[in-house]
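ok so for the tutorial part 2 we go from a plain amino acid sequence to predicted structure tokens. step 1 is just haveing the sequence, like this:
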Amino acid sequence: MHAFHLAQLIDQQKNRDRPYLEFLRESSLSVGLYILPLGSKDEQQPHNEDEVYYVISGRASIKVGDEEQAVTPGSIIFVAAKVPHYFYDIKEDLTILVFFAPAESSS
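step 2 — the prediction. this is what the tokens look like for a chain of 107 residues:
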């Protein structure tokens, strides 16, 4: 079993120089915490895996392909593999759980 506590993950991520902290990796799935501060720029590139975002806290918008959507706590967004996407207009610090299937690759 793998068990995690959100407050501990947030503390771990704050000690990094990157906005993303992967905390679970299996061949079929990886999970991480993505934190984007107010006013920051999301510079991620399309991934080779399907991805699900669950917004824990914060307010912003996301662009996925040609579609745009506001996100708030409780928003769940699916992004298919290789589709360009990014968060923008970050109005409150965003804290997001990110699920990749299969596990995110480095390519």
